[in-house]
């Protein structure tokens, strides 16, 4: 990926965030929030941010389809573009519920997918002014400083810190996690925002991270970031993660040994 493309996409995320999304933070009006599906909301910031970023991404790489979360909510067939030669994945406002609640735990995320695999990703967190960029085979960085995840292989099991978002667990998985939870260190539900929790894993604040629902715009950017920082990402059955699949369950961990230990939480 040329540096020009990386920089243009980074600029687009920050500019659209500043002009369209951030001004609406803690400033939503009546009619700016709607229920998208049971338990999920969408705001005017999601919709307008996605519309503007879609236009900017098309300018960067003409002819490459943009698969946005809100566009797919209206037309699920758009998701098929991810199976093609090249496509953008876009989540203009990850952590919408947090945004609506007045929490700063939200992010703007983009990934470029080629042949079904994420090759470049961007995560912009306005709170803290942190820009994360990852390139397949080229490493991960925050604000231009390389990220390298320390190993947790020698950390005792009872001291491993994990984030487990259990919202979409089936009853059997939920029961397994509750039964195994006492063996581990502190487990939290995280920030309910992939754009927050994946960077925390990459930077060493947590040792593993479990999500159950795996929509591609939520996870393609963050999984590439943590992998390029040295972490291990797999489905619970040990198969690789691909944005083209929406199989339930995704476990990311500091290193292969920590992954092997963390997966026992589910079994």
Strand/helix succession: HEEHEHEHEEEEEEHEHEHEEH
Number of domains: 2
Number of strands: 14
Helix- and strand-based class?
alpha+beta
Mind telling me which CATH architecture of the largest domain this is? Answer: 2-Layer Sandwich
Structure explained in plain terms:
Strand 5 (about 105-115) and strand 6 form a beta hairpin. About 40% of the residues are buried. The model has no long low-confidence stretch (mean pLDDT about 95). It is built from eight helices and 14 strands. With about 270 residues, the protein is an alpha+beta fold. It has two domains: about 5-145, Fructose-1,6-Bisphosphatase, Chain A, domain 1 (2-Layer Sandwich); about 155-265, D-Maltodextrin-Binding Protein, domain 2 (3-Layer(aba) Sandwich). It starts with a helix and ends in a 5-residue tail after the last helix.
Chart the SSEs and their pairings.
Blueprint (H helix, E strand, L loop, with lengths): L2 H19 L11 E5 L2 E4 H17 L5 E3 H6 L11 E9 L1 H6 L5 E8 L2 E9 L4 E6 L3 E4 L2 E3 L14 E3 L6 H10 L6 E2 L5 H9 L5 E4 L4 H13 L3 E3 L15 E4 L2 H7 L5
Helix pairs in contact: 1-2, 6-7
